[in-house]
C-alpha cells in the first residue's frame, strides 16, 4: 500500500521562503515608489504619496525613454520575425538537412554574453567600411541577433506542433501556391506562437541594459539606462527610478500573462508548458 | 495531376535564398564578433601577431586572476545554491494541487523578469545602509547588519545572484520531476522497495541529467551576468564581465588584445557549460518519451 506523505512542515517552509525571497525586493521598490518622507532609522516611510507616479507620467525625459525602449524592442522584433518566419518554415519544409546548423547558430548568443558581444561588435564596426559602431543600427541589429534563439526556437516548435508538413501538403494539393500556403494557411496557424515569441522577446529587450550602455553609451537613453542612473541618484532620482521600475515590471508582467493565456489555450487543459 | 507537391533538388534555390537574411545576421553580428575576439586575442595594439602573450599578461596580473576567481566562485556558489533551492521548490511543486502549482509557476516566471537594475534597486532599498531590513534588524533585533555584510560587496552581490538563479533553477528543474511518474513510485513501493531505494535507484538517476543541465545553464548565466553586479556596485565589482566593460567605458586605455584574451577565456567556460548542457539534454530526452 503506497503511503503518500501529507503536506509537511518542510514543504511549507520551502514555499514561504521561496515566495518571500522573491517578493521582497519587488515590495521594497514598490514602497519606495510611494515614499514621501522617510527618516533614517525608521523601518518604513512615515508618509506616502502618489506624486512620483504623477511626475513620471508627465516627465518628458521619462516618456521619451519609455518610447525609445519600446520602439527599439518593437523594431528589433519585427525585423527578427521577418527573418525567422521564412527561415523556420523553409528549413522545416524544404531544407531539413541544415536544421542542425541553424540550431547551432541559435545557441551562439548563449556563449556570447552581453559584454563579450559588445566588445566584439565594437572592435569590428568601429572602422570603415562598416563603421556603424555608436549608431542605432548596430544596436537594433545586435538586438535582432540576440533575439534569434528565442524567436526561432519558439516559432520552429510552434510550426512543428501544428505539423507544417501536412498543412502544406493539404494546401498545395488543394491548389494553393507557395505564397498562398504560407500567408493564408501557415501564418494564421502559427500566430499564437508568433505572439508568444514576440511578447517574450519584447520583455527581454525592454530589460536589456548591457548592449545599450556599452554600444551607445549615454546617448540612447532607454528605460534601463535611466534606471541605472537613478540608482546613483543621477538624472531622475531614486524615487522616480522606483516608479519606473514598477511600471516596467507591470509591463513585462502583463506580457507574461498574455503569453500564458496563449499557451494555455494552445494546450487545452493540460499542464502549462514552460517556454524557456 | 502533374502538380509538384515537393520541390525537388533542383529547386532549392528560392528556399535557400529565404534563409539568407538569417545567416547574414548571424554571421555579421554573432560569428564575426566571436572570430574577432578570438583572432584579436592573439594580436597587440599595433595589430601584430603576438601569440599567447596577451593571455600570459592577463593571467600574470593578480588583478585579473582575482577577477576570474571571483567570477567562477560566485557563479559556482550561486548555481549550487540555486540548484538546491530549485530541487526543493520543484519537489514541493509536485506536491501541490493544480491550481497552486500553476500560480506558483506563474509567480516564478514573473519574478525572473525582475533581474538586472530593478533587482539592484530592490536590494539596496531592502539591505542598503538605511534599508528596510537593515533598519528592522537594528531596531527590533539590535543586530548591526553592516558589521559583517554589505549589499555593495560580495555578500550582497551573492544574494542578488541567488535571486535570479532561484526562478531559473526552478523552471529548469521542475520538468525533470515531471519525468518521474507517480505510478513508478507506487509500483516500486508495492514491490517492497523503501522510499530511499526508490529515490536511489530510480528517482535520482532520472533527475541527475536534468539537474546537471540546469546547473550548467545557471553557471553560464551567472558567469555572464553583468547588469546586476554592475548596478549594485557602480561597475566596480571585481568580476570578469565588469572588467571587460571597463575596456569599453573608457576608464582604461583599451588594449583590445588583452580584452579579447579575457573574453575568450570567459567564453571557454561558457562553451564548456553549453557542451555539458547539451550532453545532459540528450540524456534527458531518453526519459521524456
Structural overview:
The complex is a heterodimer of chains A (276) and B (289). Chain A contains 11 helices and 2 strands. Chain A has helices at residues 9-33, 51-58, 60-93, 99-111, 114-125, 136-161, 164-173, 178-206, 210-216, 223-231, 237-267; strands at residues 35-37, 47-48. Chain A has a two-stranded antiparallel sheet with strand order 1-2. In chain A, helix 3 (60-93) packs across helix 6 (136-161), helix 6 packs antiparallel against helix 9 and helix 10 crosses helix 11. Chain A is globular. Chain B has 289 residues and is an all-alpha fold. Chain B has 12 helices and no strands. Chain B has helices spanning 13-40, 53-60, 62-94, 98-111, 117-127, 132-141, 154-179, 182-190, 195-223, 227-233, 240-248, 256-285. Chain B is globular and about 75 Å long. Chains A and B meet through helix 1, helix 3, helix 4, helix 5 and helix 6 of A and helix 1, helix 3, helix 4, helix 5 and helix 6 of B.
List keywords for this structure.
heterodimer; A: 276 residues; mainly alpha; two-stranded antiparallel sheet; 2 strands; B: 289 residues; globular; disordered N terminus
